[in-house]
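Mods, move this if it's the wrong board.
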Amino acid sequence: MTSADELVHAAKAILLDFDGPVTPLMPAPVNALAADAARAALKGVELPADVATTTDHLTVLRWTASGAPDRLADVEDACVTAEIAAARISEPTAGALDFLRWCQEQGKPVVMVSNNAAEAITTYLHRFEATSLVRGIVGREPRRPDLLKPHPSLVLAALELAQAEPAQAVLIGDSVTDIEGARATGVPSIGYAKTPARGRDLNEGGADALVDTMDLRRQ
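Not the wrong board. Structure tokens:
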């Protein structure tokens, strides 16, 4: 496995997932409340068991696209509202802001590429006066949950913003969908493993390197 140090230092641009590597946006019970808000927009609709009990609001959003498409706009709005509310209170992942500052010092543009709404990411960056540390934000396309990672479209859009070819960038994310999205576009990937179990999942998903800290200046 390639080292994270090699990947970060060789990269012309950094593609960075938001929820996890930058901030734990949806810790319990915030995640469950967001999922409840998404389900509230589906009142009267019979939900499959996994959707009725999930604590992942994006699972509800994905299902709605095919299971209740006439409610998709309402569920999307509920998800955006919940994410913005979470972004107003979430705290930085240890080392993440220092890493963003280091990237700026090194001349490595950072593009956020996330399944969350761009509005939530903007809200968070404003709180910590970090907007200038990011070249751009690629959040989910409204009403198109089919294009969420691991679909390559968000990663491709981030590459365009970063003005980098796939081999010139590195994507850092904490979920298998991040790694799969990177692989689908030919972008090297670093898995941020918050737990040993997550590290195993990311490794099996094909991450090119693993880290357990976001202070990647020290890798």
